[in-house]
Amino acid sequence: MAGSEKSHELQHHRLRMLKEQQNGNATDLLTLNEKKLKDREERETIVLWRRPVITLQYFLLETVVNLKEWALRLWQRRQFVFVTLLLFVVATIAYYVEGGHQQYVRFVEKKFLWCAYWVGLGILSSVGLGTGLHTFLLYLGPHIASVTLAAYECNSVNFPEPPYPDKIICPDERLEETISLWAIISKVRLEACMWGAGTAIGELPPYFMARAARLSGTETDEELEEILERDQNAEDLPNRAKLAVQHLVQKVGFFGILACASIPNPLFDLAGITCGHFLVPFWTFFGATLIGKAIVKMHIQKLFVIIMFSKHIVEQMVSLIGAIPSLGPSLQKPFREYLEAQKAKLHHKSGDAVEANENWLSWIFEKVVIVMVCYFILSIVNSMAQSYAKRIQSQKYTEEKMK
Questions:
Q1: Which portions of this protein are annotated as coiled-coil regions (predicted)?
Q2: Into how many domains does the chain fold?
Q3: How much is the pLDDT for 26?
């Protein structure tokens, strides 16, 4: 009987010790989560307008770290780098040596620079998880709009090259039939698809980051899991929409990614992180993203801009502006003057002098472009500074675990 009581007390003592240990682990976990939350809030204060000195310092240090990492990766792929340099040397020799091939070299150079320009703008638009430069609104959209207005005014898309694409001038011949929507779409297809391909490339850094974190099991992978779990428990509409995108990408695979990439979707930023975290194959992710953004989505956006800036729609919009009570005529005048000035420029020959008369609408647009570019640069500096602060905090967590 005494032995039974002693055994019961020993079992009770073990249960109490186990419960205390679980409570201690729960307390440590709670303390760690509170510490991570505090560190995240501290990182968010590292911005140029609040802590300029430390932000610039961390930005420079993060730049040095990234350069070292890129140099190491290039050294690990030195054979590929050597072949690339060899091809570059051959292309340089072909570029400068005179001969009958120069006409083809100039043609390839022109097309390559034109495509690279729009691919670069596409990358700038999607890189940075939502902080990218909105180059569709600033560059591609206005370019498609100007080509559309010129096509209806000139009744042709055969603009003289040069000066096109730097400047649009109506050709001497004028078609008798009405310009078709398909002709305008075909005229801007190359730059639109290149921009879309750039946006697809801009989605790769989050994918590779999340994939590398998942494979290595680092602190970054734990934070990604926390983000996904937090989105699953969220009840507000934006996070529920993100969760719907995440489930679609995770369960449907290629066609889910294609569906999300094929529509103007601001929630697609997390698709790269989700695919990388769940180890979706690279070509499944990039292939679906490239098809969706460069082909399907671009034709939707392009068609929308062309329809909105067609001749009849523009005239109706200007008329509606004039119908606004009191302010209508004063607002309508600069819009009409701007459209008339743009139409007049289309009929100037390349050697003719054009009167420099800047409209306030174009002046405002230029200033908006400058402000958005400056904001983009500031966001890059802040983001890189916060990345370096995160490196320091991750190193501190690692050292604490090793103690």
A1: none
A2: 1
A3: 47
